[in-house]
Design a protein that fits this description.
- The structure holds 2 protein chains of 2 kinds.
- Chain A is mostly beta strands.
- In chain A, the strands form 2 sheets. In chain A, strands 2, 4, 5, 8, 9 and 10 form a 6-stranded mixed sheet that branches. A 4-stranded antiparallel sheet of chain A has the order 1-3-7-6, with no helix packed on it.
- In chain A, strand 4 and strand 5 form a beta hairpin.
- Chain A is globular, with a radius of gyration of 13 Å.
- Chain A starts with a strand and ends with a strand.
- The mean pLDDT of chain A is 93.
- By secondary structure, chain B is mainly β.
- Chain B contains no helices and 11 strands.
- In chain B, strand 4 and strand 5 form a beta hairpin.
- Chain B is globular and about 45 Å long.
- The relative contact order of chain B is 0.35.
- The model of chain B has no long low-confidence stretch (mean pLDDT 94).
- Classes of the chains: A mainly beta, B mainly beta.
- At the A-B interface, strand 4, strand 5 and strand 9 of A face strand 4, strand 5, strand 9 and strand 10 of B.
Chain lengths: 113, 111
C-alpha cells in the first residue's frame, strides 16, 4: 500500500518568508508525527497528533512553528518568518494507535537563504 | 549529555562481514527500541522493533536489548553493499508518543 507522502520534496525560501509543508499519512493510521533532522542534531520530535485529542506540541522550538491536522488525515506544518537555522529536513511519520511502529515519509528539505 | 548516544562512524566493512551497531541510553523509562535504516536523501525505514529486553531476529538482522546495561545492538550478518546507509536507533517510553533518536551510524559495505 501507499506509504507516507510529503510535499514539496524540496523548498528554498528567503529569510523572513512563511512556508507550509504537507504530510499525507498512511491510510488508517490515526497518529501523526513531525520531526526535524538537522546536521549534527539528529532527528528531533516536533509535534504529535492522535485522533481528536489535543496535539502534543512539546517539541516545537518556537512560536513561529505551528501545525494542524484536518479531518484526522492530512497535516500541514507552518513555519512563519523563517530563519536560517530552520534549514533542515522535515520528516513526517504515522502509526497505528499504539504508536510504537512509526513509518516515515521521504521528508521535505527546507533551505532558508 | 544526550539521552541516546550512538557512534557516528563512519564504519567500513568488507562484503560478507558481520556488522555490529550499538547505542547506549540514560533514560531507564525507555521500553520500546527500534532500528531505522536511512539511505542518503531518503526518509528513515523501520528495520526492527523490540519491546523490553531480549533478542529479535529477522532474516540477516538481529536486534538485542540489554536494559540492565542500557545498551542496544543491531547485528547484520552477511553484509551487502546495499546495506550501506545510516543506521539510527530510536527509543520510546511506555506511555510516551515521541521517539528519541541516536545521531546515526554511517555504514559502508565495500566489495
Amino acid at each position: 500500500g501507499a506509504g507516507v507522502s510529503q510535499s514539496p520534496s524540496n523548498k528554498v525560501t528567503e529569510k523572513g518568508k512563511d512556508v507550509e509543508l504537507r504530510c499525507d499519512p498512511i491510510s488508517g493510521h490515526t497518529a501523526l508525527y513531525w520531526y526535524r533532522q538537522s546536521l549534527g542534531q539528529g532527528l528531533e520530535f516536533l509535534i504529535y497528533f492522535q485522533g481528536n485529542s489535543a496535539p502534543d506540541k512539546s517539541g516545537l522550538p518556537s512560536d513561529r512553528f505551528s501545525a494542524e491536522r484536518t479531518g484526522g488525515s492530512v497535516s500541514t506544518l507552518t513555519i512563519q518568518r523563517t530563519q536560517q537555522e530552520d534549514s533542515a529536513v522535515y520528516l513526517c511519520a504515522s502509526s497505528r494507535n499504539t504508536g510504537n511502529e512509526q513509518f516515515f515519509g521521504p521528508g521535505t528539505r527546507l533551505t532558508v537563504l | 549529555q544526550k539521552e541516546v548516544e550512538q557512534d557516528p562512524g563512519p564504519l567500513s566493512v568488507p562484503e560478507g562481514a558481520i556488522v555490529s551497531l550499538n547505542c547506549t541510553y540514560s533514560n531507564s523509562a525507555f521500553q520500546y527500541f527500534m532500528w531505522y535504516r536511512q539511505y542518503s536523501r531518503k526518509g528513515p525505514e523501520l528495520l526492527m522493533y523490540t519491546y523490553s529486553s531480549g533478542n529479535k531476529e529477522d532474516g540477516r538482522f538481529t536486534a538485542q536489548v540489554d536494559k540492565s546495561s542500557k545498551y542496544i545492538s543491531l547485528f547484520i550478518r552477511d553484509s551487502q553493499p546495499s546495506d550501506s546507509a545510516t543506521y539510527l536507533c530510536a527509543m520510546k517510553t511506555g506511555g510516551g508518543n515521541k521517539l528519541t533518536f541516536g545521531t546515526g551510524t554511517q555504514l559502508k559495505v565495500e566489495l
